[in-house]
Each structure stands twice: as structure tokens, then as C-alpha cells.
Amino acid sequence: MERLGLFGGSFNPVQCGHLLVARAALEELALDRLVFIPATESPFKPGQTLAPGAARLRLLRLALAGWTQVEVDDQEIARGGVSYTIDTVRVYADRFPGVKLFYLVGADHLSTLPLWREAEALAKLAEFVVIPRPGQACGPLPPPFHGRLLKGFPLGVSASQIRARIKQGLPLEGLVPATVAEAILNSGLYL
Ligand code: ATP
User: Fold this and answer.
1) Domain coordinates of the chain in residue numbers?
2) 58 near 43, Cβ under 8 Å?
């Protein structure tokens, strides 16, 4: 049975923590494919100003250039409005019946998971995989979700830290891929 991983988030911008999650997920979950799915707007961060969807997609494509088994899906950006994971996972379940779906979620989202739209239906469609984050408590998945914990390569970097560093003019080397750092600096994003 084919194994497909889904990795949703703001990716505002993509940073090396996200890439280490991808590497670990491909290997630990023996995935055939992993798809990054940037959101338009999180239901839990209403009104948050993100860089435009097209810019976040472009940075993701730069970051993932040359990766095999990894793709970027623009469906949540194309739909616009608030992005609900159930809508996205249903698209995959309908399009690829018989494929085993995994949904990656950071440990920082564990407490809100039961509040996600149509949690019961969502928990039936995909196995949830919790990504540990340094400094973040990592309990078991709350019902109705079932799944496992990724071991990963824990790295305490976040997109908010990257945005703060850009505002302060601090170096980004080692924290985002070089192509992404260059594109951000050239386009004046996050200043
Ligand atoms: P922000 O700082 O803007 O909240 P972020 O980088 O923490 O951004 P997202 O861009 O939404 O968060 O990340 C997508 C997913 O990747 C989320 O589930 C998040 O928990 C997870 N994630 C982000 N950074 C890391 C990291 N360093 N290690 C493990 N998981 C991460």
C-alpha cells in the first residue's frame, strides 16, 4: 500500500526545522511521498499577516529543489480563506483511495487538535504523526486521534525566529537554505 505524508503549516518562511522534519518523516514512516501544503490562514491565528501565498510557495519550491519524493501542493493557497485540514485531507482521500495517509503535526498543536474542524472524520482519514519540538511538552495524541511520535532531528528553530532575525539584520546561514535566504533578501520580504 502506498504511503503518503501530508505536512501542513504556514511556512512563513520555510526554515531548516521543516526540512529536518521532512527528512525524518520520509525515513521513519517509510513514505513514498511527502507533500508540503502551505495554508492561506490558520483557524487558530485569525487576522495573522502572512507573506503572500505566492511568495511562500516560491520559497518552499526553492528550499525543496532537487529533493525526490517531496512535493509542494498549492491547494490551500488556491482555495483562499481559512484553511481547514479536513478539506485538504478529504481531497487526498478521494483522489487516492487505498493510499495510507499520514498527517504531520507539531507538538505545539497537540492541545488544539480536538478543536480542529470535524476532528472525528479527520482522525479516521489519516494517521497523525506528532513532531517533537525542543522546549515543547509532547504528550500522547488526544482522542479521537491515533498515531505516533516522530523521533526526528530536534532543532529549535521557528519561522517567527527567522522573521525576527530578518528584521534585526541578523545572518540566516544554516537556518534556512541559502537559496531561500537570498530570495527573501532580494524581495524585501519580512522587513
Ligand atoms: P511560526 O514561528 O511562524 O509559528 P513555525 O515554523 O513554528 O512558524 P509552521 O510554519 O506553521 O510553524 O510549521 C509547520 C509545521 O512544522 C507545524 O506543525 C510546526 O509545529 C512544525 N515545525 C516548525 N518548526 C519546527 C521545528 N523546528 N521542529 C519541529 N517541527 C517544527
Assistant:
1) 3-154
2) no
CB of 101 closer than 8 Å to CB of 91? no
Q: How far is the CA of 16 from the centre of ligand 1 (A)?
A: 10
Give all strands of the β-sheet with 3-9 in edge-to-edge order: 70-72, 33-38, 3-9, 100-106, 127-131, 147-149
Task: Work out which ligand 1 atom sits closest to the CA atom of 106.
Answer: 20
What CA–CA distance (Å, rounded) separates 147 from 156? 23
pTM: 0.94
Q: Which CATH superfamily is domain 3-154 in?
A: HUPs (3.40.50.620)
For residues 143 and 114, give the distance between their C-alpha atoms in angstroms, rounded to a whole number: 7
User: What's the CA-to-centroid distance between 90 and ligand 1, angstroms?
Assistant: 23
- Asked whether 89 lines ligand 1 (CB < 6 A), one says no
| CB atoms inside a 10 Å sphere around CB 16 | 18
Q: What pLDDT, in 10s, does the model give residues 33-88?
A: 999 999 999 998 888 899 999 999 999 999 999 999 999 999 999 999 999 999 99
Query: Atom 18 (ligand 1): residue with closest C-alpha?
Result: 106
pLDDT (mean) for 100-126: 96
